[in-house]
Design brief:
- Helix content is 61%, strand content 0%.
- It is mostly helical.
Length: 195
């Protein structure tokens, strides 16, 4: 079993920050969460038994810190679309019109690009460009959709917990998750990203 030292914890800080920032999209809160995670890990270092990697243990601690933060902050819906570069279409406004024609038939291939989200970590390691596009497309989702999708599909929280943390009802979460998947799929297909 590895001994936890201040240096071993600080070596994980940048990776933890990237994880927290992706979930919270706020620099200050991400830094605070990392600091709380490292302090908690240091205080509980005797409980680390080495059955998992240090990074896995720290990510588990941070997952609960992020959930606690989300529960304590009252979220308000964001109606502002995210800023995109001038050469890219804004996918934050009325995306459902781009998905279906007037008779309700798909305008896009409904399974296009989703393989990148379902691939194993080994498979995705070699797909840096695809993952970068997935991140870009996720950033274009409205805040609540992005948060709900991340908590459910990336952090693998049960729908009721993900919905509560995102500030939506469990009943509407399925519809919102479907909407997030459609918007991601449309964005990936629009940019011709091939997994």
């Amino acid at each position: 079993m590895d001994i936890i030292t201040p240096d071993s914890l600080m070596a994980e800080a940048q990776r933890l920050y990237a994880h927290a920032f992706q979930r919270l999209d706020d620099h200050q809160h991400a830094q605070d969460i990392v600091q709380e995670t490292l302090i908690t890990a240091w205080r509980k270092r005797e409980t680390f038994d080495g059955r998992s990697a240090l990074s896995t243990w720290l990510t588990g601690i941070m997952k609960f810190k992020i959930l606690d933060h989300l529960r304590s902050v009252k979220r308000t819906p964001t109606s502002q679309p995210t800023e995109n570069s001038p050469d890219e279409e804004n996918w934050g406004t009325d995306p459902m019109d781009r998905l279906f024609d007037a008779s309700g038939v798909w305008k896009i291939d409904p399974s296009y690009g989703m393989e990148a989200l379902a691939a194993s970590p080994d498979e995705t390691a070699g797909r840096a460009e695809v993952l970068a596009w997935v991140r870009r497309c996720m950033e274009r989702l409205p805040e609540r959709l992005r948060l709900l999708f991340s908590l459910r599909e990336i952090d693998d929280l049960p729908v009721p917990e993900a919905a509560a943390a995102a500030g939506v009802t469990a009943g509407s979460a399925a519809v919102l998750l479907t909407r997030a998947r459609h918007q991601l799929r449309a964005c990936l297909q629009h940019h011709q990203v091939t997994p």
